[in-house]
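Homework help board

Subject: predicted structure for assignment chain

Our instructor gave us this sequence and asked us to write out the predicted structure in token form, then describe one feature. I got the tokens but I'm not sure how to describe them. Can anyone check?
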Amino acid sequence: MLLASFSRQFTEAGCDEAGRGCLAGPVFAAAVILPRNYRHKKLNDSKQLTREARLALRGEIQRDAIAWAVAEATHEEIDQINILNASILAMHRALDQLRQPPELILVDGNRFKKYRKIPHQCIVQGDAKYLSIAAASVLAKTYRDELMEALALQYPGYFWETNKGYPTARHRDAIQALGPTPLHRKSFQLLPKQLDLFL
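My token output:
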């Protein structure tokens, strides 16, 4: 079972993102403050869970959390400031929306920019270690997946309903055949270098 907290004296918000490696669409981030001694046997890194399990957990997280928020940075912002900065921007936006400010921020990964005057701790693979980060990963992924499923109806043929914008062979074949959509990230390598792509 994942750890409930990094420290015992601070109110902690876990932060994580979803969609960083995608070729299209925004990057989402979530921030979650869970009760201090929270326990959950099934909550884990969202990548280790089925779609059905993530959706069930989302409802429990939103019910049980002291505070939670989800935010995004657009594909245009990703192209302007790069994916790392856009991911951090989305995390900051999620933190902005929390109805209670945390005293410590736990961030999945190894890079973050200071948020206000609140201390933070970067934790590699934190979504597999701490409940609050795992909860944030579930919220970020489920909300982003739902958006990409809706956008798949507007842009049929790219199979976003299944690949969610990630660089699968089927997705790249569609880009080669149909060209990029307005939602594709122009700063990303959409196709292998040996293939021509007209942007």
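Reply (TA_rk): Your tokens look well-formed. For the description, you could write something like this. The chain has six helices and five strands. That's the kind of observation they're looking for.
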